[in-house]
């Protein structure tokens, strides 16, 4: 008789924590030798529902942004001033009991122009201090090497990742930080939501002025190929410089279902899934999947690979797969199907799901489905590194934030993670987005709040920047203390 013990809960050593990005939290955009980044030329959105503002960048808007040295129109330049509040903020994370804190390094803090031959010592020293502060509280840093930003100079000089030469500059940067933080950082990730490369400027720093649809695809997939190669090289570097460290990839998971049992809808859903999983297929399996051959041929995409690229990809597979999960969509072969907004994209409306203030469909069971599908497909450890609810939180007169809606959202998702662990999924940890209020990635709003910690700043940058604990702060503290057992 075959019998095996079923896990009853989250494993010991589970990495509970939260996640942020340098360009949304740090501020100090022109301090201590830091260069301007691609994130800092993205204007704030004028339409709350518009989650693609960060891609509406042209040569003209970049020139305009470079001439404007203020933060009013470019909120990611100010963030929430983590640069000067990091001690206070990390102390608050420790108070919640964080085991891990996912953050990113601003490439332009280390290499201001991207193509510099020597790093900026002041930038390196800042992250020395941040990691030391984490170590003081036994918090493991989980570090993303590139999170929706790169030195703007690389866009101006060579259109970002559209140029193969950018691999060389990225490799110089990764070697420096791997060596500098050896023994201080055990968990690394290469590119945040690497599939965002097919949404344009956000991820690749490549401008797409006056290109046809097929020309855009050609540029985007070529730029992503360069990122694949850079990621594979970084994996090799990391393993050689610090054999005890682990390095993963990161995907924006777009869980989707067929709108109906119509085989046409089912096939369209399968196609959309392949478009999403292509990126992890390359980074986890180490090769381009066959199903993309037809897609590339039908859209006149020809990936320019240099000799040795395929060998690099095969050798540079990641140690774990991390991903963001906020919502799910439905897919239909019909162009008339109702649409809804989402995480940097749009998808079909599911009549069975509720939505957030920003129209994102809330689907906790979809997280369990994703975890099982990933485990079945890849058989590598999984890490949920973004999941959370953006909402219009209100600070009361007595400095409280009663965010029961966020607690409800997180509780339901954590319960489904627990179900997935009982299903047999190897799950490393969970870092919610985001533990502290910060600037929205898509719209550059402050009013779209995710945190357990409220930051007194409005969309115009007004406020004291004082930090306040929300109700969810104390709830998550209890979740961590009980390793996910007490979710009441």
UniProtKB/TrEMBL annotation:
InterPro entries named in the record: GH, GH_1_N_CS, Glyco_hydro_1, Glyco_hydro_1_AS
PANTHER family per record: 6-PHOSPHO-BETA-GLUCOSIDASE ASCB-RELATED, GLYCOSYL HYDROLASE
PROSITE patterns to which the protein is assigned, alphabetical: GLYCOSYL_HYDROL_F1_1, GLYCOSYL_HYDROL_F1_2
Active site: 386 (nucleophile)
Keywords: Glycosidase, Hydrolase
Family: Belongs to the glycosyl hydrolase 1 family.
Native species: Ligilactobacillus pabuli
Name of the gene this protein is made from: pbg10
Protein name: 6-phospho-beta-glucosidase
